[in-house]
Amino acid sequence: xRLLCFPHxxxxxxSFNGWRRELPGWIELVKAQLPGREDxxxxxxxxxxxxxxxxxxxxxQAMADLPLVIYGHSVGSLVAFELIRELRRRxxxxxxxxxxxxxxAPHRSLRDEHLLHSLPDDVxxxxxxxxxxxxxxxxxxxxxxxxFLPRIRADLSLSDNYVYPETARLDCPLHTFIGEHDNLVxxxxxxxxxxxxxxxxxxxxxxxxxxxSREGQAxxxxxxxxxxxxxxxxxxxxxxTAVRSATMRSS
Length: 251
Hints:
The chain has eight helices and seven strands, in the order βαβαβαβαααβαβαβ.
């Protein structure tokens, strides 16, 4: 099977490097490398989710030779959600499950106090520091802040300006997670993901904040492995494929 992962705002494929060590060998980890980060730093990041999804679809369709599960964290949850809806619209093969964490449900309006993309640099850097997604020392260094903030702001704009176009509920199982001390996502807005589930639906609260604690991250990965195992068309054999990982780059 393949597990395709989309990172948080400003995050790159390396966000999931640690997952490879913990995943069983029969899961191929595919880390999405979106424009504007890491080795794609020169590519302008998208600020509209539908433009990004249109670029992603051909790459995901090329993965149809193996069963697929998609995971997204924070802004990555929105990208994953819209990607599945676009695949469905095109009549393409759909993932066997969608796993999301740390984002409000797509149809829930953004609360004013959580509007981030238009904040001044110093204020935005402070909010990002409080969330814990980037080491605080990097945000205090003017060079690194100049590198991180524009791509974070672009991703936040993609999320903040998103308008939900209502369609049918998802056809695949939907599993949702949130940190018990997440100060960015309102609990009832996260719980509303249930309104998009057309089949199996679960939600779990994990230790930590928006990015979970170390314990919370370990619990998340354990749940992800169990979810992927539950939708596997047939049990993985002892002679499963060797440990693999790959990076998906949109055009």
